[in-house]
Write a structure and sequence with these properties.
The protein is of the alpha+beta class. The protein contains 17 helices and 17 strands. Bound molecules: glycine and manganese (II) ion (2 copies). One of its GO terms (biological process) is proteolysis.
Length: 501
């Protein structure tokens, strides 16, 4: 370190040769050859084979992404890009800056090469001096051999990536998942621009479109889950049920402490972090009128006796698969008459939506079935405008008045991302047929804001959503979250049992 650098640094690290030699010596040998093959490895290989078949002869670049600064020298917890996680099988916080390259090989197919930053030797500055990557600071990373054994692919040092990705750039098609790592994408754009024969904007737009096509393919291919993924989803749902029960047990504490929504968030988060990687999205802990704000994640409110609390939360397990479940609970253990009326309507809509989850039905049929029940109740309660009946409000062009009270859709695909497969086109999502292995949410709701003058006074300030995670099976569906009570009577019994009333 120069004298100038030394002055500019308020922390200094010893770097004399004597210290370097001292810190590098007398460590037990590393345990080599002990890493076992991961159970996800064969599934990830199958996924890569599908990608390989779709893009023959092209180099495909799927970055994990890099660390993001939170402030100064502190980073956010790393989460790999979902496409990278899916194609490698790596989850949790693995591996910042890594890049999966599917390299076309002569004779067809691709070789999977994972470039990453392997464990550094104890004789390096990184070992003790690098607070972002060093073993002293963030723990030991795997070696190249470890990752090869774990994942069954070729592992190479990240320092070799730049040359490897640029090799034969003029002769080979190269695509990258653009949103995973902006710096790396900009570098590759330059490489590709340099070898282009013209620098017309249309060529760079065509390249970006080719990249988008890869990203869309990788997003859509996650729609039908393999058996390993379904198992991960079961784990996520079961872990989420544990978190919900812990919240129910602690509701009296949430009431007593004030700012109870934060207490609920913390209790669920504790279990999410304990059992899995964390929460799959920021928990919505919405008591009273806050339930009418669809993505209420501030969670600053009190939890009051007599109110409902809408808890929309999911545990993300280490593989990054997440549940997404909502239950709306009466804080005092029993629904009031008005709360039950709204709750039972939403429950009927949820049952109708769930019944539509079966192969051959379209994805949008689930929403259509649920929203019809919502519309019927709103009509029966006299809330739709004068002269607008159920069919009229369901008309997609001229109706939709019911959306004042349920503006969101009933379902989305669920998996590594809470809103999974988000790059799919309408024809592959909304208008597509449901197939065995898909997992989607069914989550109708009714939201009557406290200041909604169209709603009878006793219903104002009541917001209800019921959300389940549903697997499409060969002959229908399986509600993965069926173990968590859903009807108003079952929810009351659940609270009584957990709180041992
Ligand atoms: N938790 C967000 C959603 O239900 O889609
Ligand atoms: Mn949700
Ligand atoms: Mn959802």
């Amino acid at each position: 370190m120069s004298e100038e650098q030394h002055k500019a640094e308020h922390r200094s690290r010893p770097d004399s040769p004597a210290f370097r030699a001292f810190v590098a010596a007398d460590w037990a040998p590393r345990r080599a050859g002990t890493t076992e093959s991961s159970p996800v490895a064969p599934y990830a290989a199958q996924r890569r084979a599908a990608v390989s078949a779709a893009f023959p002869g092209e180099r495909l670049v799927v970055p994990a992404g890099g660390l993001k600064v939170r402030s100064n020298d502190c980073d956010y917890v790393f989460r790999p890009h979902s496409a990278f996680a899916h194609l490698t099988g790596l989850g949790a916080d693995r591996e910042p800056d890594a890049v999966l390259v599917l390299e076309p090989v002569d004779g067809g197919g691709h070789e999977a090469v994972l470039f990453f930053r392997p464990l550094a030797g104890r004789d390096t500055e990184e070992f003790f001096g690098d607070s972002r990557y060093g073993e002293f600071w963030v723990g030991a990373r795997p070696s190249l051999a470890d990752v090869e054994a774990e994942l069954g692919l070729t592992a190479r040092h990240i320092d070799e990536f730049k040359d490897a990705v640029a090799k034969d750039a003029g002769h080979i098609g190269i695509r990258i998942v653009r949103d995973a790592d902006r710096d790396l994408t900009a570098d590759l754009d330059e490489v590709r621009a340099d070898v282009r024969e013209t620098d017309e904007a249309s060529e760079s737009a065509a390249q970006a479109e080719a990249d988008e096509e890869l990203a869309r393919f990788l997003s859509v291919m996650r729609m039908v889950k393999d058996e390993w993924e379904v198992e991960e989803m079961r784990k996520a749902v079961n872990a989420t049920a544990v978190g919900f029960e812990a919240v129910i047990a602690d509701l009296p504490e949430a009431v007593a402490r004030g700012r109870g929504e934060r207490w609920v968030e913390g209790v669920f988060g504790l279990h999410a972090r304990h059992q899995g990687n964390g929460v799959g999205y920021d928990s919505i802990c919405a008591s009273g009128d806050h339930a009418n704000t669809l993505h209420w994640i501030k969670n600053t409110g009190d939890v009051k006796e007599g109110d409902l609390i809408l808890l929309d939360a999911g545990v993300e397990v280490d593989s990054l698969f997440t549940a997404d479940i909502t239950r709306t609970l009466p804080v005092s253990g029993e629904f009031s008459e008005a709360q039950r009326k709204v709750y039972d309507a939403v429950h009927a809509a949820a049952d109708a939506g769930m019944a539509a989850v079966k192969p051959g039905n379209k994805f949008s049929d689930v929403h259509d079935a649920a929203i019809r029940v919502i519309a019927e109740h709103l009509h029966e309660w006299g809330l739709l405008p004068e002269g607008v009946d159920v069919e009229a409000t369901l008309d997609k062009e001229t109706g939709q008045y019911h959306r004042r009270w349920m503006v969101h859709g009933t379902s989305h695909h669920l998996g590594i991302d809470v809103h999974d497969c988000a790059l799919a086109l309408r024809e592959d999502y909304m208008d597509a047929e449901l197939k065995p292995g898909m997992i989607l949410t069914v989550e109708p709701g009714l939201y009557f804001k406290a200041d909604d003058l169209l709603v009878p006074e006793e219903m104002r300030g009541i917001g209800v959503r019921i959300e389940d995670d549903v697997l499409v099976t060969e002959d229908g569906h399986e509600n993965l979250s069926a173990g968590m009570p859903r009807s108003s009577a079952e929810v009351e019994a659940w609270i009584a049992r957990v709180q041992q009333r």
